[in-house]
Amino acid sequence: MTVLVRSASLTKYLGIARGAGLDPVRMVARAGLDQACLYTPDLRIPEQRLAEVLEASARETRCHSLGLMVGESWRLSDFGPVSLLLQHQPTLRDALAEIERYRHWLSDSVSILVAEHPGVAVLHVTLQTGRQQPGRQAMELTVAALHSLIRAILGESWMPHSVHFAHAAPADLRIHRRLFGPRIEFGADFDGLVLASADLDRVNPLADASLAGYARGFLDLQPGAGKPIAAEVRRTLNQLLPRGRGAVEQVAQSLGTSPRTLQRQLEQDGQTFSALVNDVRRELAQRHLQDPRRPLAQVATLLGFSEPSAFSRWFATQFGKSPTRWRQDGA
């Protein structure tokens, strides 16, 4: 399945690329995209092509923070048809819930999971891309765009408690620190933002319930709003498995349905829940094992296994070799 995203990121990329001395038309053409995506934010383009443009541009300019700069330039209006709805949510918590509800308007790739702990809330960002690694540029763009959204709701003075990326740090952190402040962790267990839990429920003084209702009514009336249930389950599993919450009951709850209804919908699409769990685990296993810094016990946990031995048995069944041998072979 081709993962599609709005072309809004490339309309923001246009100015960043020109400022870095690139020809943006040439760069998108090399990735097989029409130049119209540089000027029209609501086209649907393959996420893979967007990632290719960003990574190639970063290599050519030697600016390893190019995706971050694109995300930094995002404004509330860049969220397209969902912008009015987000602007008039009473709290950040409500805005994040609406992003999940209407994410099909924004991206097939991005998911944001809110995990609350005493005093802090963690916004876990996951990208479903079909690649073993989403790539630095795409991930930093997404986290920076989320940061921009939060500032639009909470005010320009807001700063996160900390920012986390699973990939390694670039040589130059000046742009990261300008945007996020000093508390940035690379090589982390997750990608996303940590903020004060009180920030989730801080009142948005600009919220207007009538305008929010108007925007929601418009979005709900548009054709083709829904996504295939299997795609929604895969996206949710990518969020929940690393937190040990991959049971059908937990996935169904996250999707706002019952386990029986979820399994029936999957059967109608010729899918089973267990097969989707297995597919997502295979993708995550290959992604995490490529990182030599991750011990096998941690990889097992990130795939939702309670014991490393259970992970090793499953992996050998799936790939015909142990995870240690797979990593040694570079397969």
UniProtKB/TrEMBL annotation:
Keywords tagged on the record: DNA-binding, Transcription, Transcription regulation
InterPro entries: AraC-type_N, Homeodomain-like_sf, HTH_AraC
Entry annotated with the keyword Transferase: no
Signal peptide from the UniProt entry: none
UniProt xrefs under Pfam families: Arabinose_bd, HTH_18
GO function terms (MF aspect): DNA-binding transcription factor activity; transcription cis-regulatory region binding
GO cellular component terms, semicolon-separated: cytosol
Domain HTH araC/xylS-type: from-to ranges: 231-329
Protein name: Transcriptional regulator, AraC family
Organism: Cupriavidus taiwanensis (strain DSM 17343 / BCRC 17206 / CCUG 44338 / CIP 107171 / LMG 19424 / R1) (Ralstonia taiwanensis (strain LMG 19424))
Species lineage: Bacteria, Pseudomonadati, Pseudomonadota, Betaproteobacteria, Burkholderiales
